[in-house]
Amino acid sequence: MPHPLIELDRSSPEPLYRQVRRAIEHGIAAGTFDPGHRLPSSRELSAELGVSRNTINLAYQELVAEGFVESRERSGLFVNAEMRSPCPAPEQRARPRIDWSDRVRRFPDAGVPHLEKRTDWHTYPYPFVAGQMDVSAFPARSWTRCLRDALYRPHLFPALQDSVGADDPMLVDLVCRHLLTARGIEADPAEVLITVGSQQGLDLLGRALLGPEHLVAMENPGYLDARHIFLRTGAGVRGLPVDQGGLLPPDDLADIDLLYLTPSHQHPTNVTLSIGRRRRLLELAAAAGTVVVEDDYDSEFRYQGSPTPALKALDGSGDVVYLGTFSKFLSPGLRLGYLAAPRELVRELREIRRYVLRHPPGHLQRAMALLIDSGEYQRSLRRYRTKLMRKWEATCAAVAEHLPWPQGPYPPGGVSLWMTGPSTLDCRRLAERAERDGVLIEGGDLFFLGGEPPRNHFRVGFAAIPPRAIEPGIRLLGQVCRELLG
Ligand SMILES: Cc1ncc(COP(=O)(O)O)c(C=O)c1O
């Protein structure tokens, strides 16, 4: 009978019999094995694959036990016809009955562009991407220890049980005592919700507070993902201008239901909101009853002076909603963050979250709690901040040397530089052309709201790129800029 080529990987830790069994099982599911025919005998297959008959027999025994294969007396082993995939190959399938493009809900952000995040960025020699991290800086050994410890008493139940709507009390306590206090915020556990990242915090706030009758204000340029999330609720979104001192407060916030901003390092320009403007915005919000949402995504990364306290720390009412994340320092792939807000709001957000994903994985929450509790979180953060500071210095020096227009000074924080080229520079063309030389940058036009966005801005992220690639990468980028600008 025809049977697919079974490839065995002798260096794999997976036992050979399991590999044989998996290959046959896969062949049955894919319809490669015809149920009418006999499987090769263990003698034939062992000779063909160069393994012992015992290996083949073990694989067959499991396949029989699980019903993939049936043993017919004196005839041999046959594929169980019922196990054959009912699923024809894609080209043989009938046309779908449902026109899915017509069925799926249309969201009001349909016309807004998306940040094109590449997942193959690490295969490029000069990945000046934002939003990724240097995986070699991740405290893998300590994290592994915390993941393991989280599976032993007394951590076992919080790590593995269904906590329904609750968070890990140990993590919440440590967030309150260590992370929020470091930002000048006093919160008790009922005022904290663990999230699967700031993005979820924004989504929950959108579900709880926004609808078509509401208006959101945010920085322009600003965080494109937040804009999508707000628009998807049906709310209107208005951009407020940003300059060197951060968001420019409008005359009033009377018609604004929610103000979203990134005061520590404005996204994407990295400027810090001045203290005078912070006070003014809080006054305006209090007068208008506007909900203020502070996204404090990377305040840890300050390379000169000390980080400014959070906006929420200035707010006597406690009404400011604060979003924190583990994405920038530890890893965006962990999907863990937290928010601090008045307890009534946290209660409501928890209820909403319960019907979305119940709670962020308990095992991850407890491991994160153990990492913070052991002191390793702070130690790794200090090490990572020093690494990033060197990269920030190297990137500032390289752009000053190689880019063909006057540079800087750049705000001493964040994980990227916001570049403004001459008005004739087209960041889209620059990004495309640089990519051909292995240099990845992000065009800046996407971050602007409305009309005809300027095309002469772009972002150079330095968190993910290896230090030795910074200078040659920026040198190449400089050459491409010269070429495009003529
Ligand atoms: C402005 C801003 N907020 C938040 C985040 C982090 O989001 P999350 O915690 O969902 O990974 C990012 C990441 O790129 C960001 O740029």
Summarize the structure.
The protein is of the alpha/beta class.
Topology:
Layout: H1 16-29, H2 42-49, H3 53-65, E1 69-72, E2 76-79, H4 100-103, E3 126-127, H5 140-149, H6 156-160, H7 169-182, E4 192-195, H8 198-209, E5 215-220, H9 224-232, E6 236-243, E7 246-247, E8 258-261, H10 275-288, E9 291-295, H11 311-314, E10 321-325, E11 337-340, H12 343-357, H13 362-373, H14 376-402, E12 416-420, H15 427-436, E13 439-440, E14 442-443, E15 457-461, H16 470-485
Parallel strand pairs: 3-13, 5-6, 5-8, 8-9, 9-10
Antiparallel strand pairs: 1-2, 4-11, 6-7, 10-11, 12-15, 14-15
Pyridoxal-5'-phosphate binds at residues 131, 197-199, 223, 262, 267, 295, 297, 325, 327, 332, 337.
Beta-strand residue percentage: 5-15%
- Note the gap between the termini: 67 Å
Write out the strand line-up for the largest beta sheet, numbering strands in chain order. Answer: 4-11-10-9-8-5-6-7
CATH class of the largest domain: Alpha Beta
Radius of gyration: 28 Å
Cofactors and ligands present?
A: pyridoxal-5'-phosphate
Number of strands: 15
Q: How large is the count of helical segments?
A: 16
Query: Which class best fits the helix and strand makeup?
Result: alpha/beta
**Fourth-level CATH superfamily of the largest domain:** Type I PLP-dependent aspartate aminotransferase-like (Major domain)
| Shape, principal axes of CA atoms | globular
Q: Main sheet?
A: 8 strands, mixed
Are there runs of 5+ residues with pLDDT below 50, and where? none
Whole-number count of domains: 3
Mean pLDDT: 92
Helix content: 25-40%
CATH third-level topology of the largest domain: Aspartate Aminotransferase, domain 2
If classified by CATH, what would the architecture of the largest domain be?
3-Layer(aba) Sandwich
